[in-house]
Design a protein that fits this description.
Protein name: Alanine dehydrogenase
Order of helices and strands: EHEHEHEHEHEHEHEHEHEHEEEHHHEEH
Strand content: 15-25%
Number of domains: 2
Shape: globular
CATH topology of the largest domain: Rossmann fold
CATH architecture of the largest domain: 3-Layer(aba) Sandwich
CATH class of the largest domain: Alpha Beta
InterPro entries: Ala_DH, Ala_DH/PNT_CS2, AlaDH/PNT_N, AlaDH/PNT_NAD(H)-bd, NAD(P)-bd_dom_sf
CATH superfamily of the largest domain: NAD(P)-binding Rossmann-like Domain
Distance between the termini: 20 Å
Domain Alanine dehydrogenase/pyridine nucleotide transhydrogenase NAD(H)-binding: 148-296
Enzyme class: oxidoreductase
Strand order of the largest sheet: 3-2-1-4-5-6-14-15
GO molecular function, one term: nucleotide binding
Length: 370
């Protein structure tokens, strides 16, 4: 199979879909690799390394026109829509439920869209989302601590405090991978941490393993309302796989917060769990609403691309091998995890939560696997 790896064009997105080492392995398996020039440069991988792995270096148009399978990191942007061919397989993060424009563009393209974020194991874990969620959870605390500084319009608070001065209050809404990693980081820096979720079993588990400065709290709306009033840093870490995130912090709630409080919405890829959330970039990461600092970068792990690329490709590579060796239909028939990653196939939505998000027609995935 011909596999293409384009350069990511999202603002300051420096990750890449495959490393030279993975490309070399795919070449050994008999596949042909087309990698866009400078695709790996942001992650520290030079064109020369890809060429030494047996890859053909070319322009974006040649990657898309020549590839049967395109392996990316982020969703295609508008200028890429016309490059995608009918019947071509695109394997990347899509987050369709947050963008009707993207959804309709991929329907129109006739491509086969397999989304990293909905590939799901039998235990309901999301193997291709986990490593980036780990990175984003840890980064959320780093960024939050930075924007709490006064020159960044924050409250002027040191996250861990000092002897004689209380540490910051950190509230994390969502106790999944993002929330757990954020709690570990915030606790390690000495903050007072409250982590909230509606899964009591998960809260009980975290109560056992987390340090003494992490407290668990059931995520009822009244508890959220009260918790944000005394928070210095609030991290939205909600995930509903394949669907739009629910709004848990309304604009009216901002008026109850202390001026200079920092909001980090890691759920921004899925529409955000904060009503005033809008996607930002690493170039212009924050904005202020009612005196509250919002950090809503939609590709947080892109800021640490060497770590993120390695963490991501370690888990995507086995699935790339399956698709490349068997074709998408056979690979999805034989691997239930990969089948759940199918979102749009040949002009039809095959993932129910996406059709529900936009009230668009839904087609059973089984109809497309024969």
């Amino acid at each position: 199979m011909v596999i293409g790896v384009p350069k990511e064009i999202k603002t300051l997105e420096n990750r890449v879909g495959l490393t030279p080492a993975h490309c070399a392995d795919l070449v050994k398996l008999g596949h042909k690799l087309l990698v866009e020039t400078k695709a790996g440069e942001g992650s520290g991988f030079l064109d020369e390394e890809y060429q030494n792995a047996g890859v053909s270096i070319c322009q974006a148009e040649d990657v898309y026109s020549g590839a049967d399978l395109v392996v990316k990191v982020k969703e295609p942007l508008e200028k890429e829509y016309s490059l995608i061919k009918k019947g071509q397989t695109i394997f990347t993060y899509f987050h369709f439920a947050s963008s009707r424009q993207l959804t309709e563009a991929m329907i129109k393209s006739g491509a086969v869209c397999i989304s990293y974020e909905t590939v799901e194991k039998s235990d309901r874990s999301l193997p291709l989302l986990v490593p980036m969620s780990e990175v984003a959870g840890r980064m959320a605390v780093q960024k939050g601590a930075n924007y709490l500084e006064k020159h960044n319009q924050g409250r002027g608070i040191l996250l861990g405090g000092v002897p004689g001065v209380k540490p910051a209050n950190v509230v994390i809404i969502g106790a999944g991978i993002v929330g757990t990693n954020a709690a570990k980081m915030a606790a390690g820096l000495g903050a007072n941490v409250t982590i909230m979720d509606i899964n009591v079993a998960r809260l009980r588990y975290l109560e056992d393993i987390m340090p003494a400065n992490v407290y668990t709290l059931y995520s009822s709306q009244s508890n959220v309302n009260e918790a944000v009033k005394t928070a210095d840093l609030i991290i939205g870490a909600i995930l509903v796989p394949g669907a739009k995130a629910p709004i848990l912090i309304s604009r009216d709630m901002l008026k109850t917060m202390k001026p200079g409080t920092v909001l980090v919405d890691v759920a921004v890829d899925q529409g955000g769990c904060i009503e005033t959330c809008k996607p930002t970039t690493h170039e212009n990461p924050t904005y202020v609403v009612d005196g509250i600092v919002h950090y809503c970068v939609a590709n947080m792990p892109g800021a640490v691309p060497f770590t993120s690329t390695l963490a991501l490709t370690n888990v995507t590579y086995p699935y790339v091998c399956q698709i490349a060796s068997k074709g998408w239909q056979k690979a999805c028939r034989e691997n239930e995890e990969l089948k759940k990653g199918l979102n749009v196939v040949n002009g039809q939505i095959v993932y129910k939560k996406i059709s529900e998000a936009f009230e668009l027609p839904y087609s059973e995935v089984e109809h497309h696997l024969s």
